[in-house]
């Protein structure tokens, strides 16, 4: 076993600013103090900002999103029923039921069957509603207001002026 005595420090080693640093593999001492550059720090901050923004968007309020999705789904189904009513010449009535869904009366076959809401806590303000989707090209202005039972302060209206298609509008 070879135990070498530590060599005494040279005066040049003690005088250098990086005296506790070991020389690089090439034998030359490192110059300057090591650390991160400003560009590297800015890149890290930019990555952290993007990650924070992504998390913020991922954590959207699901109650508002579900209600908006229910409104868009209902608007699309109302437009389909309206088109079928015009094509067949038979008036169609949409109505909500107390069991947590809705029906299309007047549509042939299974298309008029009861349909549940996507979210069980979705319902119609006032408990029940009815819309007429007659075979005429112009129908009266109509709307139905959807609410989430878990958040009664939030509501969306699915409405038409009688000429335009049904559209979803957020209510304050």
Automatic annotation (TrEMBL):
InterPro entries hit by this protein: N_methyl_site, Pilin-like
Q: Name one Pfam family in it.
A: N_methyl
Q: Where does the sequence pass through the membrane?
A: 33-59
Q: According to the UniProt entry, which residue ranges have a biased composition of type Low complexity?
A: 1-15
Sorted keywords for this record are: Membrane, Transmembrane, Transmembrane helix
* Positions of region (Disordered): 1-29
Q: Which domain of life is it from?
A: Bacteria
SUPFAM superfamilies reported for this sequence: Pili subunits
Which NCBIfam families does the UniProt record give? IV_pilin_GFxxxE (TIGR02532)
**Designated name of the protein:** Type II secretion system protein GspH
| Name of encoding gene | gspH
